[in-house]
Amino acid sequence: MWINVGRIIKSGFVSFWRNWFVSLASLLMMTVTLSVIGALIFLSATLATTLDFIRSKVDVSAYFVSSAAESDIMALKSSLESLPEVLSVEYISRDEALKRFRERHANDQLTLQALDELGDNPLEASLSIKAKDPSQYENIAKFLGGSDALGRGGTTLLDKVNYAQNKTAIDKLSKIIEAARTFGYALTGILVVASLLITFITIRLAIYISKEEIAVMRLVGASNAYIQGPFIFIGFIYGLIAALVTMGFLYGLTVWLGPVTARFFTGTDILEYYLNNFGELFLILLSSGMLLGVAASFWAVKRYLKEV
Question: Which domains does the chain have, with CATH numbers?
């Protein structure tokens, strides 16, 4: 068995180098495919961090009438926190809202002067509600509009809920998330199919060049597995080399773009991500490349052996 394995590996290397120009085309396509897969991994990580940052800035605020008792507000807060859609709820009292307003307008003396002239705190207490997913804000808004948001005796607690004002931003965020995922999956699928087809064609050319050797092997009683072995090994080599080249390419790309992404994507440095996840990234690319190469090779040889 080990003698046969050695012969298969040797024959695979010989065929790989003998058809180096044909092999180069397949390697280039597979490298492009793996590069896109790697880039999508980086994009996914960057997008996830950026979206988490955006999510942290998007919320629904419920403002209470001035007569609302704090105990009723806290009871509503507890009810909201029990909802599966809710990530967190922050209570902002009237005094806290006034303090934050003054801090935000510390350099606007006219606004502060007008506020002082009122003589009373015009701001309302509120609850700042963050959902686990942007698509869930509508359910939260419906809950706030229901009977669960009423105080003791059925009195109205809420003055307004700013969901309608934030709905446009929330909807756009949800669409961006979905569109980015769909585009990534579609692009990866297209390139995987293209890589499979090109590798298939490459192996078919290699088989055509070696058809006389295959005919001799069949005459002397070689099994289909023994005939398939060298070509499947070539596919294995394609995947290995393409993964190594892709890792080198991605390293250079992350060195170049790392500082840029750190500035524009809320501190996400893709070079740091590359170094921290090197092993996992290499394993994904290596397994993807080998799977593509071996699957295309197996498919090509199997079809050829059925035809002859």
Answer: 2-54+172-307 (no CATH), 66-156 (3.30.70.3040)
